[in-house]
Amino acid sequence: MRRHVKNNVSWIGYVDWELETFHGHEYNTKRGSSQNAYLIEEEKTVLIDTVWTPHRDVFIDNLEKEVGLDKIDMIVVNHGERDHSGTLPALMEKIPNTPIYCTANAVKSLEGQYGKRGWDLHVVKTGDTLDVGNGKQLIFIEMRMLHWPDSMAAYLTGDNILFSMDAFGQHFASAELFNDLVDRNVLYDEALKYYANILNAFSPMVKKKLPEIAALNLPIDMICPSHGVIWRDDPMQIVEQYARWCDDYKEDRVTVVYDTMWEGTAKIAHAIADEIKAQSPGTVVKVYHIPTSDQTEIMGEVFRSKAIALGSPTVINGMLFSVAGWLDHARALKFKGKKAAAFGCYGWSGESVKLMQAKLSEIGFDVIEENVRANWNPAEADYAAIPALVKNLLAE
Ligand code: FEO
Question: What mean pLDDT, rounded, does the chain reach?
């Protein structure tokens, strides 16, 4: 099937209702996702991107039925990652002479993944245009590091549509297609998790890119990302939201993240959460047990938080591997401007708190000195240390 988007533009992607994880198992897609491809049918017929390899047969059959493969004059590859390019090898077997427009880095990613196949690749850069007929043009805008070096957006004049690739997307399967037809809270929940987990690491580039796009003075009536729903109603709302998110974003929230062996560290985690609420009733507090929680959701919460508290007991002179792994995950997302505290129980050597503090500091958190290190089970003196820890954690 295809879905009408605007005038001669259609959506022709794949709604991945069943998708549970993305980037291997790195990202939990509990609301599924979609891989959005688009068709422009002016004097020229242009296919913008494809879908992930497992759905290639459905996609190619659909394309054949809806438009006819031999009608496709050109293909725009906005990004080489397999969720969007995975169908290209099979499609190009059928239409091998069709020109493909992409960035120089996308040539590297396509040839790196699929080999040199003799495709008719045309390199484009910001400001380059492609006539699609009937007075309309595609204008290309490189989106380097949003989120790959090869990423690009394409803008369709006349219809004022920005095909933004991953930027402004959400892992959100929906039959509704447009932002004004879905629950706004759910949409923003997914858009935020997407930003936190995929784009936050590149926030400095987002911060530079948004004014560059604005400087092009292109009216934007619609933003068509490569995942999730299309921003049709007030499309600039998500651009304005990105401007806030890329600027060391934080809300009045604190996230407590921990793992535990014999429940002692869990008790401290809960006591810290209670104390935050006691000292600052308006602060939103969430507590996550790392091994049993949705990692994508945790990172979304950390992104929104002004501070975190991280807990692990000491095990074999270190911290639990779930916490060590979590710290490496947090390192990759490059959070900035957030405070952090560490806590944990120990029986013998007791290194975990110091190690967590050092790692938190190394990966960009502002670590406070106050901590809770409880020998065996947390005792009254350990709980007595929590108010000072929380006071500093909440201090602006
Ligand atoms: Fe949706 Fe970077 O791929």
Answer: 97
